[in-house]
Amino acid sequence: MTGLKDYMVRAIDEEAGILAFAARTTELVEKARTIHGCSPTATAALGRLLTAAAMMGSMLKGEGDTVTVRVDGGGPAGPLIAFSDSRGNVKGYIGNPSADLPLNEKGKLDVGGIVGREGTLTVIKDLGLKEPFVGRVPLISGEIAEDITYYFARSEQVPSAVSLGVLVDRDRRVRAAGGFIIQLMPGSTEETAIFIEEKIKGMKPVTELLDEKNSPEDLINLILPGFKLRFLASQPVNYSCSCSRERLEGVLLNLGREEAEEILKAQGRVEFVCQYCREKYEFTGEDVRRIFESAENPAS
């Protein structure tokens, strides 16, 4: 762990038509690893998705807006889900956190291998409207960054360059994590696009840059030297779950009294485990009766 705080920044060059986002998510990804007990490759896969979701959350306009990014690749990791609001609160889930594979032919963690390459990436934006926006694209590589790039191009028609990385140390802890998203707005030129592409090709991997203590602002300045960048906002980003006993009471009510009674008979209690933070919630027979009675006879 670097001891440096996690945060993300946004920048714009209106003249050149460029929007840039960059984030350091080392502590966030380490917390996710600890909660879920991830293998090194699972840590890299989930960490990349959490980092992407954090930056996509910062693109949202409204205070209550949220984005969920789901990857179903058919690999041993199972489904991956990352959820973010517009304030930098991020949480996630991986179906099989112990899934692991040998390093790939480049000597890197085989994220595409455990995620799988036969499936879809789905983005759900809840913008407070009657229906959420849902965009779905086929996976390109399962490596996450290329898949997010393809999503932006295909579903939102926004040319983008996306880089995401997680560096896992020998003791399995997260040493560095983060990434960037560079987007071209209407009016930007092909020359600008080629310049950015070449610049990114010649750069060190994003985890190496973060491990060398480069900040999110440094990342953007390295990719876009000479541009008239205006940094718009900086905000903390953290792993944060909003589950509560009250919310789980709602889940219990949705089960229905009959099913809840059957679970009580079999187990003596009803137990829920939050998939995002692994917090356990137990309801005794007395709790269950009280909850259903309160719902059926609300105080007038």
Automatic annotation (TrEMBL):
It holds the Pfam family HSP33. GO terms for cellular component: cytoplasm. Its main location: cytoplasm. It comes from the Bacteria. Gene3D superfamilies: Hsp33 domain, HSP33 redox switch-like. Redox regulated molecular chaperone. Protects both thermally unfolding and oxidatively damaged proteins from irreversible aggregation. Plays an important role in the bacterial defense system toward oxidative stress. This is 33 kDa chaperonin. The gene is hslO.
